[in-house]
Amino acid sequence: MRNRVIDVAALRCRYGDFEAVRGVDLAVDQGELFALLGTNGAGKTTVLETLEGLRRPSAGRVRVLGVDPHRDRAAIRARTGIMLQESGFPGDLTVAEMARLWRRGDHGDALERLDLGHRRDVRIRQLSGGERRRLDLLLAVLGRPELLFLDEPTTGLDPESRQRTWEVVRELLAEGTTVVLTTHYLEEAESLAHRLAILHEGVVVVSGTLVDVLAAQPARISFDLPGRLGVDALPMLGGDVVHNPSGRVDVRTRHLQEDLEILLTWARRDGLALGRLRANHASLEDVFHAARGGREVIAA
Fold first, then answer.
1. What angle, rounded to 10 degrees, do the helices at 129-141 and 95-102 form?
2. What Rg, from alpha-carbon coordinates, does the chain have?
3. What are the φ/ψ torsions at residue 13 (nearest 5 degrees)?
4. How far apart are CA 198 and CA 193, in angstroms?
5. Burial letters for 16-52: b for 16+ Cβ neighbours within 10 Å, e otherwise?
6. What is the pLDDT of residue 112?
7. Residue 292 and residue 206 in contact, taking contact as beta carbons nearer than 8 Å
8. CA distance 81 to 103
9. Is 44 left (phi over 0), alpha (psi -120 to 50) or beta?
10. How many CB atoms are closer than 10 A to CB 208?
11. CATH number of the domain at 218-281, out of 3.30.70, 3.30.420, 3.40.50, 3.30.1330?
């Protein structure tokens, strides 16, 4: 059984009369990547700051690496790495100088790992936005932390740099690092996360493993009806059928293979061509939109 790295129960956080986090429960185990998602104002930044020990909770129980992160911040500082949305590092320092200032030792391998070796003597203010984000990640992982907080790590990166960042995160996970990730890129969470939680207005409306969360949402079949056929001509399907004004038909179903087989058999029998036919399981974007609508999707 994996060790519990983060354990949060009934967390509440207030700003004056406004309660930003309203009874959140979270659990993160060693070696997994946990994605904390939500729209702006959902409360995820407040939760993250609380986990990092930067904010005292108004109520509830918070344990990170077995201790209270706010009261015992010094005890966990050496065991955690934090990549903030904005670093604010001194622009006159070079990449190598910043790495040495952050942590003593030879950082050559780490610089190469994040494609910064050829920029080691370049001043930070001369780096591109993508290079600065890679430097942020470099400084967060120096010393091989047991727990790594990544707050929007790939914002502003080009696709190639984003993929390289994902590779580095996967390498860290393989080495046993536990990662808590916030991101607005849902494909990033879908690619990396073992488990996730989606916050909406200060409460968790989605939680569970990625597989179970996706399975909790219906799959979709979409196509253009040929000619002047209406939906009444369709065979009996197990899912919900919606005929859009554009003529396109959407079927939301929990029996993707069965309904697709029925539909294709009907079309083949009657010699029909279903234009722009698509069939796919639910994506994290589908789950996220359901969560924004306030529909609870808890997958154990």
1. 20
2. 23
3. -135, 130
4. 12
5. eeebbbbebebebbbbbbbbbbbeeebbbbbbbbbbb
6. 84
7. no
8. 12
9. alpha
10. 18
11. 3.30.70
Q: How far apart are CA 122 and CA 134, in angstroms?
A: 14
Residues forming CATH 3.40.50.300 domain(s) in the chain: 4-79+145-214
Residue 127, Cβ neighbours under 10 Å: how many?
Answer: 19
What is 242-266 written as a DSSP string? EE-TTSEEEEEES-HHHHHHHHHHH
Rounded CA gap, 203 and 296, in Å? 10
The model carries a pTM of 0.85
Distances (CA, A) of 202 to 18, 23, 25, 46, 159: 11, 8, 11, 9, 31
Q: What is the pLDDT of residue 155?
A: 86
User: Quick one: fold of 4-79+145-214?
Assistant: Rossmann fold (3.40.50)
* C-alpha triplet 34, 168, 129: angle, nearest 5°: 100
Which segments of the chain belong to CATH 3.30.70? 218-281
Local confidence pLDDT in tens for the 300 residues of the chain: 579 999 999 999 999 999 999 999 999 999 999 999 998 889 999 999 999 999 999 999 999 999 999 999 998 988 999 998 776 778 889 988 888 887 655 666 778 888 888 999 999 999 988 888 888 998 898 878 999 999 999 988 888 888 988 999 999 999 999 999 999 899 999 999 999 999 999 999 999 999 999 988 999 999 998 877 888 999 999 999 998 888 899 999 999 999 999 999 999 999 999 999 999 999 998 898 887 764 444 443
Identify which of 139, 129, 76, 127 has the alpha carbon closest to the alpha carbon of residue 102.
139
